[in-house]
Amino acid sequence: MTEWTPDARELADLELLLSGAYAPLTGFLTSAEVESVVERGRLPGGTSWPDPITIALPDEFGPGDRVTLRDPEGAAVAVLTVVERDGHHAAGPVEALDVPAYGPFARLRRRPEEVRKDLPDGEVLAVTMRGPLDGATLDDVAATAEELDAAVLLMPLVFGEGGPAVVRAALKAAERLPGATVVAVPLAPREDTEIDLELREHVARNYGATEHYAGPAPISIPGPPHKRGLVVFFTGLSGSGKSTIARGLRDALLERGGRTVTYLDGDVVRRMLSAGLTFSREDRDRNIRRIGFVAAEVARHGGLAICAPIAPYAATRDEVRAMVEEVGGDFLLVHVATPLEECERRDRKGLYAKARAGLIPEFTGISDPYEEPEDADLVLDTTDMTIDRAVGAVLNLVTSGGWVR
């Protein structure tokens, strides 16, 4: 038995598979089923289905494996029996291991069969919500329900940080819709609006709806940059100057005041947050993810985090960006692109000499690759650049974007 923790969207899909909200689906789709859904919007056999439901697993998991799927806190949620691999994605049925442990409004996370039993006979108007319903929309829902002689089922779609706020909005709306039932559903949004609406309607019908009313998309107006969380993420070879620039930026921001600043240097994190990790690719990725998690938590609460690891792999840097943006923070990537020859010439810690001598395996730039960013917000080469000038360039980026006044 092997183990894996799916990402947030996959966990949401897993919960809906296990609850019956995705019926007739009982597992993650095979490549043939995905192709059928993409091409014809139907599962093999003719059942209408709007969206591929997939899960990505590491390559070591193959057909026949039984994989325990855990939530981020380590609780075992389900077992996936892998029947097919297609690239990074796996397919197969899932079986529940335990009742999921919910957070806020746990009492409203109910299975479709439970909800259907409690609904009155006759028409049921389901209202799927990703944000509050304004007065005009509530009046329209009430009028529609009266016209259909239907009970009202309010379905706040709880996914991500805004989930509790959507539930609170649904409970408030229920006060104006006497007899309305509220059930929280962890349906992640889809980028394609049409697909998102079709999936919402399908789930609503599994909860007992005979009619579906899609609440309007929420109007999200982010706060001004100086009040939003920000992560300034430096990446570059050892000896490139990234840590020195990052410390200079920290000092300059502390002198200005106005923002809470957290500095996460690669070496310091290694000693504290990531003590015990090796320098294998897997452990280096794990180290960067830990830095990203802490930085995202800083950004979640409106702080400014400065990170200065080597972070040689593009995919892991992308993961950190996604962590930060998922909590509503902003992310700036600074590539300190000092050439290898200059970094090696400096070799302040003697690391390159040891790597050349074969004493340090998997050393970035020598025996292990550095994937140069293609999405950097700022690129600096410190070969002929003073530290003050480099710090000034980053500070200008931060102030011109409005994150620091």
UniProtKB/TrEMBL annotation:
Belongs to the APS kinase family. The gene is cysC. GO terms for cellular component: cytoplasm. The keyword ATP-binding applies. It is an enzyme of class 2 (transferase). This is Adenylyl-sulfate kinase. ATP binds at G236, L237, S238, G239, S240, G241, K242, S243. Pfam families: APS_kinase, PUA_2. GO terms for biological process: hydrogen sulfide biosynthetic process; sulfate assimilation via adenylyl sulfate reduction; sulfate assimilation, phosphoadenylyl sulfate reduction by phosphoadenylyl-sulfate reductase (thioredoxin). It catalyses: adenosine 5'-phosphosulfate + ATP = 3'-phosphoadenylyl sulfate + ADP + H(+). Catalyzes the synthesis of activated sulfate. It comes from the Bacteria. Residues 7-84 form the ATP-sulfurylase PUA-like domain. The keyword Transferase applies. Residues 228-381 form the APS kinase domain. Pathway: Sulfur metabolism; hydrogen sulfide biosynthesis; sulfite from sulfate: step 2/3. Keywords: ATP-binding, Kinase, Nucleotide-binding, Phosphoprotein, Transferase. PANTHER family: SULFATE ADENYLYLTRANSFERASE. It comes from Microbispora hainanensis. Gene3D superfamilies: P-loop containing nucleotide triphosphate hydrolases, Sulfate adenylyltransferase. GO terms for molecular function: adenylylsulfate kinase activity; ATP binding; sulfate adenylyltransferase (ATP) activity. Its EC number is 2.7.1.25.
